[in-house]
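can u do me a favor
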């Protein structure tokens, strides 16, 4: 018999888990339970269970810290985490510690049953199969998956033997970029076990593209749910997904069509350069892109003149609109990123040449020609080039018209946030309203305030939430809505990160002890 330790600070949940399924029939024996993190560590060391079911929000020692400490002490058993799969603040730490089983509270009988069955099967598989045999089979499967993506025919019996014969497939290409610090670098392949069973997908690398082959309708549906969740909720700068770009190929029904799904994903991955800021997923090429034709010179000249007219009139809003027009034109009509970089380089060099000829003092504002070319060619995204040009022009216009460094507009924005914090504010919308480029305004805001726009907005909302909770007459979900959060779970995470307490705990403390 395999052994189970249940860890949760609520007794009714511990007892419910004991009764919700027939553990003995599944080959498990419950050998103990614990109501806090310290008890869990002690019991795990003493009992060495095959499986631990553990809640994240534990008194004394947090659930994730229990897992990390046990792993560091050599514990090799399995964990089932009672937590939402979308809560990557915990899930990413769990993944590092080899935990891939998640169940959302309240615990569903069928979900728990299937998860325990899977773990039992894994235990038996590891026990019955030699490590060498597993490695050989995995290598053979990897070769076959690569052949499928490359369009090399594979016999149906080989697909069946390797568990690769399914009624539906989809290819995903993913890459990690601009990851910053090494300790926050995650690949999609590191995160996908949090919401997909390992039998539902295959990982491989083809032509240096990191690929995921989704197998079956369930896998495709769950991946779609994952994508939709992050389209609805903001991806924060400290989220693992902030450094990941995903190109989604078309669905297909036959193994022979998998290569077409891969080719589609590969084409879409090349369009990353043209994606908007904060865009992490691309599933179809919406426009029939054409290479810039012989009318390139005429179009380029017209766009260039619009920028120069805006600068000459000292109209920042007009300048932003002209650069937006350039941005949309290039996205619509340019097929390759190299062509787009060349197009933007020619515009920037023309701007520099005309402005420094008319205002020699501006030579100190612009980079050297070699510096401009090097910067533009090294960019991952078109919007980064637009921001670079906008920043240069902002600086030049401030110098020409003897403007201040923009602190007054930040004061206006702070005042606006303080009044309208409950509205769905974005930096992009405020930039348009105040006549600035969003990239430039974001950097100006951070320089002036010492923090980013999103951080400041969240801090403002949480401070207002504290005031409302202290009054004691609003429910938590009502406060969430009143301060601008439509997702109460997201509000709760933000509040706890700021205040060290959940909104409910904060409200209880304030009502019991006064402000």
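np, heres the sequence
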């Amino acid at each position: 018999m395999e052994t189970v330790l249940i860890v949760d600070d609520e007794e009714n949940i511990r007892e419910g888990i004991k009764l919700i399924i027939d553990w003995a029939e599944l080959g498990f024996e419950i050998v103990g339970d614990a109501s806090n993190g310290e008890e869990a560590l002690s019991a795990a060391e003493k009992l060495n269970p095959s499986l631990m079911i553990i809640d994240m929000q534990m008194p004394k020692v947090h659930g994730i810290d229990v897992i990390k400490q046990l792993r560091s002490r050599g514990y090799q058993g399995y964990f089932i985490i009672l937590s939402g799969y979308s809560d990557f603040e915990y899930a990413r730490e769990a993944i590092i510690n080899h935990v891939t089983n998640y169940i959302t509270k309240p615990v569903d009988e069928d979900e728990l049953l299937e998860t325990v069955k899977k773990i039992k099967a894994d235990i038996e598989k590891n026990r019955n199969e030699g490590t060498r045999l597993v490695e050989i089979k995995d290598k053979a499967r990897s070769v076959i998956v690569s052949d499928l993506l490359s369009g090399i025919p594979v016999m149906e019996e080989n697909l069946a033997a390797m568990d690769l014969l399914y009624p539906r497939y989809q290819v995903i290409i993913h890459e990690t970029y601009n990851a910053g610090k090494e300790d926050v670098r995650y690949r999609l392949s590191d995160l996908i076990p949090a919401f997909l069973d390992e039998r539902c997908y295959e990982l491989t690398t083809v032509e240096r593209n990191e690929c995921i082959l989704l197998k079956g309708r369930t896998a495709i549906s769950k991946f779609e749910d994952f994508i939709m969740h992050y389209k609805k909720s903001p991806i924060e700068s400290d989220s693992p997904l902030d450094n990941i770009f995903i190109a989604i190929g078309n669905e297909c029904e036959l193994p022979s069509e998998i290569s077409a799904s891969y080719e589609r994903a590969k084409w879409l991955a090349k369009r990353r350069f043209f994606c908007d800021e904060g865009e992490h997923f691309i599933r179809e090429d919406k426009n029939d892109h054409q290479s810039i034709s012989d009318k390139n010179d005429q179009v380029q000249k017209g766009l260039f003149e619009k920028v120069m007219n805006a600068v000459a009139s000292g109209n920042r809003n007009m300048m932003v609109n002209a650069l937006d027009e350039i941005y949309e034109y290039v996205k619509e009509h340019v097929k390759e990123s190299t062509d787009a970089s060349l197009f933007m380089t020619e515009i920037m060099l023309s701007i520099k040449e005309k402005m420094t000829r008319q205002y020699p003092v501006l030579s100190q504002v612009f980079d050297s020609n070699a510096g401009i070319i090097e910067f533009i060619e090294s960019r991952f995204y078109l919007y980064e080039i637009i921001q670079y040009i906008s920043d240069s022009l902002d600086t030049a216009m401030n110098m020409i018209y003897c403007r201040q460094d923009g602190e007054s507009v930040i004061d206006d924005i702070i005042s606006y946030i303080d009044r309208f914090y409950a509205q769905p504010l974005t930096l992009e919308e405020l930039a348009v309203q105040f006549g600035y480029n969003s990239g430039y305004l974001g950097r100006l805001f951070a320089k002036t305030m010492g923090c980013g726009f999103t951080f400041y907005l969240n801090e403002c909302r949480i401070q207002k939430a504290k005031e409302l909770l202290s009054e004691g007459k609003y429910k938590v979900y009502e406060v969430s809505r009143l301060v601008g959060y439509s997702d109460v779970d997201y509000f709760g995470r933000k509040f706890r990160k700021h205040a060290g307490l959940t909104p409910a705990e904060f409200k209880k403390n304030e009502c019991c002890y006064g402000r």
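The chain has four domains: 2-128, 131-282, 296-400, 406-515. hope that helps!!
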